[in-house]
Amino acid sequence: MSAAGLLAPAPAQAGAPPAPEYYPEEDEELESAEDDERSCRGRESDEDTEDASETDLAKHDEEDYVEMKEQMYQDKLASLKRQLQQLQEGTLQEYQKRMKKLDQQYKERIRNAELFLQLELKSPKRPASPSSPEHLPATPAESPAQRFEARIEDGKLYYDKRWYHKSQAIYLESKDNQKLSCVISSVGANEIWVRKTSDSTKMRIYLGQLQRGLFVIRRRSAA
To answer: Which residues contact 15 (CB under 8 A, 6 or more apart)?
Structure first.
């Protein structure tokens, strides 16, 4: 057999199916489609990873918030327990301030009561005798028959034909002729409060005391 006969393709047998034809373009399209599919799966995987990361981050933030709220609650509870302990021991600062203020108010009222009592006790008791006019009270404030007009209107005191108002400088005279330099600190419905300039203590003077002459008010210069 010659070389040409060996290299020649064998004749197709009768009835055999035709051999598949090869198209390079189809292989390239198939590979491109597979690449696109892999790329798409990669993007979907990245998106799933991002979604999972966002979910984990949100969950972590929620846990941090709950933990922060719990810590705030525990801190507040510990602070209240500490204040309660200090209150029971009498060392709470707010409690001490309140007690100090109440104590000052109590002492001020005691001083005012003692002052009124001293003024009443020092008031001379002189018998009125027509045969001895020298024994009669020398001042109008000491006469039981002498009454003064005193009333309060619109936050001002009308006394002895004069008007007096808050922050006005006055002299307060008692039945025993004791003279105090004072300032009217407030005008109430039936009384006035005066503050002594010497020690800043306050005294309450009722309208009835002014009307009966137990106390006499005189104007003075504020200077």
So the answer is: none
